[in-house]
Amino acid sequence: MSAAVRRTTYALAAVTAALLALVAFNSFPSTSPSAAAAVARPVVKSKYFTTGDTTISCPSGWTATGGGVGVDLVGSMYVARTEPTRNSSGKPVGWKGDVRQRSNGGAASGTIYVVCAP
Q1: In this structure, are 108 and 76 located in the same domain?
Q2: What is the pTM (predicted TM-score) of this model?
Q3: 29 is in which domain, residue-wise?
Q4: Structural domain count of the chain
Q5: Domain match, 75 and 32 both
Q6: 29, 51: one domain
Q7: Residues 50 and 81 sit within 8 Å (Cβ to Cβ)
Q8: Cα–Cα distance between 29 and 9 in angstroms, integer?
Q9: Sign of the dihedral through C-alpha 58, 68, 92, 96
Q10: Pairing with 1, which of 19, 78, 87, 99 sits 20 to 30 Å away (CA)?
Q11: Buried b vs exposed e over 25-51: b needs ≥16 C-beta within 10 Å?
Q12: What is the rounded average pLDDT of the residues 92-101?
């Protein structure tokens, strides 16, 4: 690709990003600042655990959009499982994880996280 084509592509991408940002910031249900502040934002929940496996849930009605698990001692522990939990309809509503000791596979400790969106 020539330098001129590359510069044009970058310029178009920058303009597109700016226009998308304007649309995103102006798409609140009302033009009043209080209405914009009332729009629910995603939250991150976390929980420390020492039992090897655990789950963490989103607030009722919210959807889990991501999550993960971290171990306390990198090198001597590992993440055996990290995945979303689902309700009866299949909607992700939380996160579950399992951490183990490398030496014997026993329960280990860590922190679990879930990102929840309204």
Answers
A1: yes
A2: 0.65
A3: 1-39
A4: 2
A5: no
A6: no
A7: no
A8: 33
A9: negative
A10: 19
A11: eeeeeeeeeeeeeeeeeeeebeeebee
A12: 97
